[in-house]
Amino acid sequence: MAPLSVAYISGTTLSQFVGAAFSCRGGRKYIFKVYGFIQNVSEITDDQLSRETRGVVILGAAPMGYSNTYAGMQSIGYLSICRSPSHKLSYGDTQRLQKESEAGCASHDILMHITSEIISDGSTRVFYSVYEMGVQPIAPLQLKVDNLVGTLDGFTMLANAFARNVSLAPRSPANGDAGYINEKVEVQDPGEDELIALAQEKADLTKRILELYRRLLSTGRSEISGM
């Protein structure tokens, strides 16, 4: 089977992943299942020859214990998110790539790696890359992002949902070894009531901001007229 040549992801899906990266805690790695599908991509070159390559389409992610899938979607690998000053694959991520290659599991094809870093001016930088499992040497795939318009809403909503989720806690290792780092994290989907409350809170904050903005405008006009 030919190796993958390109990965596709929508701006909305990417904004959700980046929102999760903004809200993750330092010193922890979050591992999720990635869902999507593999497809053959036809490319027409300059010499009018048609060439077929394999591409992966990333549609979403879910916690490791999640088993429900939608029509047309399948488990295609893993998503790892952590806060780190270096965008490099960890030992655990490298082992995943090698183990899946040895096991020959066709349902796990890619690993998407996302890291976030808070730099000196207080802003956050996010790096992301996609790797194919079972390919040597390990190198990132070409990643194409469609429609980056309006992704800031995804950053805000998902980051708030993850930060307020009290169930976001790592599993304790069975052997009780204090030096053992468990990378799997159970995350429960936020309930409907919680999402409604978050939406109402956002609407209230937006209303207050608009009211303050109007007051500032009216104050500025009063000062100008009094001069």
Structure notes:
The chain is an alpha/beta fold. It has 2 domains: 4-190, Cytidine Deaminase, domain 2, CATH 3.40.140; 191-227. The chain is built from 4 helices and 9 strands; from the N terminus they run βαβββαβββαββα. The chain has helices at residues 11-23, 91-103, 152-163, 192-226; strands at residues 4-10, 29-44, 50-63, 74-83, 110-118, 124-132, 142-146, 169-170, 185-186. The strands form 2 sheets. Strands 6-5-4-2-3-1-7 form a 7-stranded mixed sheet, with helices on both faces. Helix 1 runs parallel beside helix 3 (152-163). The radius of gyration is 22 Å and the shape is elongated. Mean pLDDT is 73; it is low at 101-106, 150-172, 176-182 and 184-188.
Question: Topology, pairings included?
Answer:
Blueprint lengths: L3 E7 H13 L5 E16 L5 E14 L10 E10 L7 H13 L6 E9 L5 E9 L9 E5 L5 H12 L5 E2 L14 E2 L5 H35 L1
Helix pairs in contact: 1-3
